[in-house]
Amino acid sequence: MTCEKIQEKYADYLTGDLDEAGRAEVQAHILGCQACREDLENLTVVWAKLGVLPEEQPGGAVRARFYALLEDEKRKAAAAAVPQARSRLADWLTFRRPAFAASFSVLLLLLGLGAGWFLSAGRPGRESYAALSREVQDMRQQVALSLLNDPSASERIQGVGYTAEVKDPSDTTLAALFKAVDADPNPNVRLAAVDALYLFRDRPGVRQNLVRSLSVQSYPLVQVALIDFLVEVREARAVEALKKLIEAGELTPDVKKRAEQGLRQIAL
User: Fold this and answer.
1) Same domain for 7 and 85?
2) pLDDT of 235 strictly over 70
3) pLDDT beyond 90 at 178
4) Same domain membership, residue 153 and residue 55
């Protein structure tokens, strides 16, 4: 295959949208063509300069990247929703969408608690506040789980956003985020899920699951996000996973370089 044809595949290669045959073609070509290999490395740097890849201290950049991505998807969803406002209103009123039904339930819950507060002379005790907090957290997780199963990538990213607002997510919610990291067809949803899980990095099983994700991840940008996550938390169990990833020889040059740097940083 000519250099021009290979270069046309660079963007899809970096985002993981190529099939196995296409990835194999690109990898075989850049191994034997120095010019194309350098072009691919330069393109990866461009991705980094655009803010797709994290900064040197990913801990601070993770939240900024996640919320910027979320806001961008919200704007896109809002723009797309204008011509369909009437049908969306009908869907909401007839509870056709579980996410809207759950949101409406949250509203009813708040109204009910407000009425109870009024009837009790406006003096709810600590138990009432605790009960409200638990109910809102549970309802928020229901909305998140519903959105994470939506066919629309922008809706799924909003679902990830709901999980980021949960203080103590359930095992079911965390499992949905792990599934998004490993199996969501959209790389932006995967990136958002990795960033959301950073907020719960001290929960048992989170780091271990993301170490495992390294072995099944094919999107270069998500591979970098996972590496940065594990380096940031100094996860010792990531050492073997990173070694296997490097030895497999299927990484882009930039991801391989980041994995090698990550090994050194974790060992410090």
Assistant:
1) no
2) yes
3) yes
4) yes
Q: What is the pLDDT of residue 11?
A: 76
**Given a cut of 70, is residue 262 above it in pLDDT?**
yes
Looking at the structure, do residues 93 and 129 belong to the same domain, yes or no?
yes
Residues 6+ apart with CB under 8 A from 27: 250
Q: Which of 14, 32, 50 is the last residue in one of the domains?
A: 50
End-to-end CA distance of the chain: 43
CB atoms within 10 A of CB 260: 15
Q: Which phi and psi angles does 85 have, rounded to 5°?
A: -60, -40
C-alpha radius of gyration, the chain, whole number: 22
Check whether residue 76 and residue 32 sit in a common domain: no
For residues 11 and 1, give the distance between their C-alpha atoms in angstroms, rounded to a whole number: 17
Residues 225, 174: one domain?
yes
Contact of 222 with 191, CB cutoff 8 Å: yes
Rounded CA separation 147/176 (Å) = 11
What is the sign, positive or negative, of the torsion defined by CA atoms of 117, 139, 167, 147?
negative
- Structural domain of residue 63, as residue ranges? 51-267
Claim to verify: residue 128 and residue 39 sit in the same structural domain = no
Q: How many domains does the chain have?
A: 2
Q: Tell me the C-alpha distance between 103 and 72, whole Å.
A: 22
Amino acid symbol at 93: L
pTM of the model: 0.57
pLDDT, tens digit (0-9, with 9 covering 90-100), for 102-161:
555 555 555 555 555 555 544 445 565 566 667 778 878 888 898 999 999 888 998 898
- 89 in the same domain as 55: yes
